[in-house]
Structure formats: structure tokens, C-alpha cells
Amino acid sequence: MLRVFWVGGLFFGTVPFITVIQFFLGSVSHRLWGAVSRSYYRLLCRAMRVRITIVGEMASGPLLLCANHVSWADIPVLGAVAPVVFIAKREVRSWPLIGAAASAQKTVFVDRERRQHTGGAVSEIAHRLGRGHSVVLFAEGTSSDGNRVLPFRSALIGAVEAACHDAGVRQVTVQPLAIAYTRQFGLPMGRQMRSLAAWYGDLDFMPHFAEFLRRGAVDVVISFGEPLPASVVTDRKAAAFSLENSVRAMAAATRRAGIPIPVRTR
């Protein structure tokens, strides 16, 4: 429990400070903004005893990363890997502290229940891509129990087409990304144990946050698939299906193997 209080205090105590810095750097220097963001998330992952293993290579930006979604921990994990911008549900904006921090992280907020608002989100994603950011889209639209990949939604993948045409960006890349929590205290996670790392359904955040920290010492594998030039993404539904299959295959392979090779560990 001491670790829970220490890490919780570190996170919630530093969020206001980091938020102010990120808002300032976001308007001054993209490079400095990214460096501070990545360093902060690395610190959080180290405090949470989360070890990250990377398989494959992340393409250069502007880049749309289409990923599966397992837990709230996906955010600091991916943020520790590279400076990225996230897409989140609209409700996150109103969460105390976290909403402000997400805004400073240049998060795009989406109201998935109102289709007429999707166009605005697509335009905002296109703007982020046009400025050279790497954008993470959790394409399932929700989180899973960590044992499967849910069907990908295709609507927001239209952001790539918008970035290519409306914003005049010609070199946007789409890349599948798989997240798999594989070990705890060095021991392989089975089907039941993986669901303990996942935050999904109606689980309350704070109890899960505390339990995750209490258990600690978690290994997560981030797998990058074959990048696809956005210029060939003409059918967003076909693209979503292809990306989904790639992510599902990478996640399944990782769960079977534990930690594949070759790797870079952080």
C-alpha cells in the first residue's frame, strides 16, 4: 500500500505542474514538448514497475497508429515509447486533473455517440497529422479484457484521407500497433491474469489503479506492424479490417510467446 500512495501521490501531485509546462511548450517547441512528455511517462512507468518491450520499428511522422486498447496503463506506456497524441472519448475532458493533462497532451476528444460530431474530430486529427504529430487511435472504440482484439471501427480512419487532401499533407503513414501485457513478477500471465491488468467494462478507475500498483512488476510488449502509406488507403472499411487483422495477429503471437525476439527493453 505504501507504493500505491507513493505512485498515486507522484502522479496526481505532478499532473498540475506537468500540465502547465506542456501547455507552454506546446505553443513554443514541438521538440521540447515531446521530450518532456516522453520523459514524464517514462518516470511514471518506472514508478509503476512497468517494463516495456518493443518489437519492430515505429514509422516516422506524420503517423496514424491504429492500436488495440487494454488498460488506462496503455497511455503512459505508449507515451514512454514516443511523443504521441491520443484520441479519447469526450468524457475524459471533464475528469479532474486528467482532463487538463490530456488537453495539454494535445488529445483529440471524440463524442462517439454523436456521428455528426465525428467530422470535427476527423478535422482535428488531420490538423495534428499535418503538424507532424504521431496520433494514436484506439480503433476498437473501447478497451478489452486483454485476451482478444475487438473489431476496429472505421470512421476515424477517414482522418488520414482528410489529412492527405484537405490539409495538403502527402506523406502520412498508417501503422498497426499491438499492446499485450505478458508477465507479472517475471512469470507469464495466463488468460485470467491478463484480465487483471486490463481496465474495461464498468470497472471503477481508482480501485483498479490501486490494485494495478499493488500487484506491480508488469511486462508489456508493444509490437509495430508493417506501415502503410496513407495514399493507398482509399477504402477506410477495408483498411480498418486489414489493420485489425494485423494487430490481432501480433497480439496473439505475443501472448503465445511471452516476449518475442528481437526486442528493445526499457
Characterize the overall form.
Answer: globular
Report how far apart the termini are: 25 Å
Low-confidence stretches: 260-265
User: What is the β-strand count?
Assistant: 10
Number of DSSP helical runs? 9
Which class of secondary structure composition applies to the elements? alpha/beta
Strand content: 15-25%
Provide the CATH top-level class. Alpha Beta
Sheet of most strands: 10 strands, mixed
| Range of helix content | 40-55%
User: What CATH architecture label applies?
Assistant: 3-Layer(aba) Sandwich
Describe this structure in words.
- This protein is of the alpha/beta class and 266 residues long.
- Helix content is 45%, strand content 18%.
- Strands 1, 2, 3, 4, 5, 6, 7, 8, 9 and 10 form a ten-stranded mixed beta sheet that branches.
- Helix 4 links the parallel strand 3 and strand 4.
- Helix 1 packs parallel to helix 4, helix 1 crosses helix 8 and helix 2 packs across helix 3.
- The longest helix has 25 residues.
- The radius of gyration is 18 Å and the shape is globular.
- The two termini are 25 Å apart.
- The relative contact order is 0.18.
Question: Care to give the gist of this entry?
Answer:
This protein has 266 residues and is of the alpha/beta class.
Task: Throw out a few tags for this protein.
single chain; 266 residues; alpha/beta; Glycerol-3-phosphate (1)-acyltransferase; 10-stranded mixed sheet; 9 helices; globular
